UniProtKB/TrEMBL annotation:
Annotated keywords: Hydrolase, Zinc
EC numbers on record: 3.5.1.-
GO molecular function terms noted in the UniProt entry: hydrolase activity
Keyword Transferase: no
One Pfam family per UniProt: PIG-L
UniProt entry tagged with the keyword Hydrolase: yes
Source species of the chain: Kribbella deserti
Name by which UniProt lists this protein: PIG-L deacetylase family protein
Length: 241
């Protein structure tokens, strides 16, 4: 399947964005620099984190019962670095996600509550060249998000048990998709992205290498986007209804 040419609405037409991901830190790796450009432009951004990341971390002796609270706190700190203060945690278990009726319903409910003009999420397509981005929880969350995006959130007859009114979002931005069709220059917000990433202290056994790794990746993206030397970019795949 060929991905259509990106045709995003101008940011000046966007008032609210809802970002939906599987784990704490997914957004900070994939899109925090772009989120920071949006919040600095006055756009309200809400995070919806599906699991509490219980299976993450690198310390074998750590009490795993502590991880949900730790990771929620880290994500809250990270979000503040890029101007996000509205976070919704759905509390699903890390490693057990499926694109179930219940998960689609819960995402639809958040969409109808936030009433965003743009969704930011993950890709339901497995990327065999960068398999780490295709964690099964990412794929499940992305599939549920795609189902919520169309047709469920905007269908008043879907999930009649929900009290919230139907809301149609006409724009979905996906991170991690194998076929990219849009890049955002985040050179000016890179420091905020890095600060957000480093807030996830429980996940980084060697935090000193994070900046080098991320800079290299963002530089490669900027080159693919034909941006001037020295610029940094995050890639996306944009779908419009």
């Amino acid at each position: 399947m060929t991905i259509p040419i990106a045709n995003p609405r101008p940011d000046t037409e966007i008032e609210r964005v809802l970002a939906i991901v599987a784990h704490p830190d997914d957004l900070d790796f994939g899109g925090a620099g772009t989120v920071a450009t949006w919040t600095r432009a006055g756009i309200e951004v809400t995070y919806c984190i599906v699991t509490d990341g219980q299976a993450g971390g690198f310390e074998p002796d750590r009490d795993r019962a502590e991880m949900p609270a730790v990771r929620r706190a880290e994500q809250t700190t990270a979000a503040a670095h890029v101007g996000v203060r509205d976070l919704r945690f759905l509390g699903y278990v890390d490693g057990r996600l499926e694109p179930s009726y219940e998960l689609v319903r819960d995402i639809v409910q958040v969409i109808r509550q936030v009433r965003p003009h743009r969704l930011l999420g993950q890709s339901p397509e497995r990327n065999w060249s960068r398999l780490a981005t295709s964690h099964p929880d990412h794929l499940a969350t992305a599939e549920a998000t795609a189902r919520a995006f169309f047709p469920a959130a905007g269908n008043p007859f879907a999930f009649p048990e929900l009290a919230e009114e139907a809301w149609t979002v006409d724009e979905l931005w996906m991170m991690e998709h194998p076929e990219k069709n849009h890049y955002v220059d985040i050179t000016e917000t890179f420091d905020a992205k890095l600060a957000a990433l480093l807030s996830h202290e429980s996940q980084h056994a060697d935090p000193a290498q994070i900046e080098t790794m991320i800079r290299e990746w963002l530089t490669t993206n900027a080159q693919a986007a034909a941006l001037p030397t020295g610029r940094l970019a995050e890639p996306f795949t944009i779908i419009r209804l």
